[in-house]
Amino acid sequence: MRENGLKMTEFVKVFDLEVLNRGSEYETSRLTITDVNRPGLQFHDFYDYFDPRRLQVIGKAEVMYLKGLTEEQRRKCFDNLFLYDIPALVIARGLDCFPECLESAREHEKTLLRTQETTVDFTSHTIEYLNRVLAPCVTRHGVLLDIYGEGVMITGDSGVGKSEAAIELIMRGHRLVADDAVELRRISGQLIGTAPEVIRCYLELRGIGVIDLRQLFGMRAIKVESQLDLVVHFEPWDQTKFYDRLGIEDHFTEILDVQVPIVTIPVRPGRNLASIVEVAAMNNRHRKFGYNAAQELARRVDLRADGGKI
């Protein structure tokens, strides 16, 4: 998540907005929440539930209403709006700016912008963009891959075999999202994982070094982002530890207040970790659709014990 919000200057650059007036806080102002507001009610002097932190957007509907007012009434509408510490007012559709709006913005030293997008497109694109940029974010050590459409993050201590399993999975046709550092964002209740831009497409293999998967395997080996569906944790085999052999119970780990299924895979020589991770991904997908093989086996055993037919 961007600390303290997204800079207004960066937002203007990303959306290619025309700057009609630079407010006194144009260089320092930040967008801190994902919502936008169309100030139709505010032009009727209703400010009871008005949140000035929102980006303000006016489109054709607001402009047609304002055209029906006198110059004095329009000026009062904009003066009342600019009295609040809003980040900016954006005029959509490339519509003409009322002289009263520009005068009021200059007097109150507020930022006034214009976009060529329609009001609906601009607001939806803005909300989608802000949801991503301002989403809670955490970085986890691991390897994130897309396996049969499932986002699987392999975790474990350094040297346990995460990257080795990842390269074999990639050679089988699966795709890498991030190696070593996985950036996870909570968007609409889901965790979306990406790689930091500087290390995107790169994977480290001990004994070989850093390789560029895009150059070696092409774009088919890379995926920019993926939802996190499963965590597979590698750990050295411990003879004194009990490992789940049935899988009747689901286990979860919490990341950014989201519960993510997790399985622990003990590592020792001779185990084909890539195949195990593939099966774990497919099994997790089946469970999401309501089928649990361990529970089905337990049901069949209980039925046979009771003398019934399977």
What does this molecule look like?
There is one protein chain. By secondary structure, this protein is an alpha/beta fold. The chain is elongated, with a radius of gyration of 27 Å. The mean pLDDT is 91. Helices cover 31% and strands 28% of the residues. The protein is built from nine helices and 17 strands. 30% of the residues are buried. The chain has an eight-stranded mixed beta sheet. A five-stranded mixed beta sheet has the order 2-7-6-5-4. A two-stranded antiparallel sheet has the order 1-3.
Indicate the topology.
Blueprint: E1 6-7, H1 8-14, E2 18-21, E3 30-31, E4 36-37, E5 55-58, H2 60-67, H3 71-82, E6 89-91, H4 99-108, E7 112-114, H5 119-133, E8 137-147, E9 150-155, H6 162-171, E10 175-187, E11 190-194, E12 202-205, E13 209-212, H7 213-217, E14 225-227, E15 230-236, E16 252-255, E17 258-267, H8 273-288, H9 293-305
Short overview:
This protein has nine helices and 17 strands. It is an alpha/beta fold and 310 residues long.
The averaged pLDDT comes out at: 91
- Fraction of residues in β-strands: 25-35%
What is the global morphology?
A: elongated
Quaternary structure type:
single chain
Number of strands: 17
Percentage of residues assigned to helices: 25-40%
Number of helices: 9
Order of helices and strands: EHEEEEHHEHEHEEHEEEEHEEEEHH
Class from secondary-structure proportions: alpha/beta
Q: Measured on Cα atoms, how large is the radius of gyration? A: 27 Å
Spatially, the strands of the biggest sheet line up as: 14-11-10-8-9-15-17-16
Low-confidence stretches: none
What is the end-to-end distance?
A: 53 Å
- Tell me the major beta sheet: 8 strands, mixed
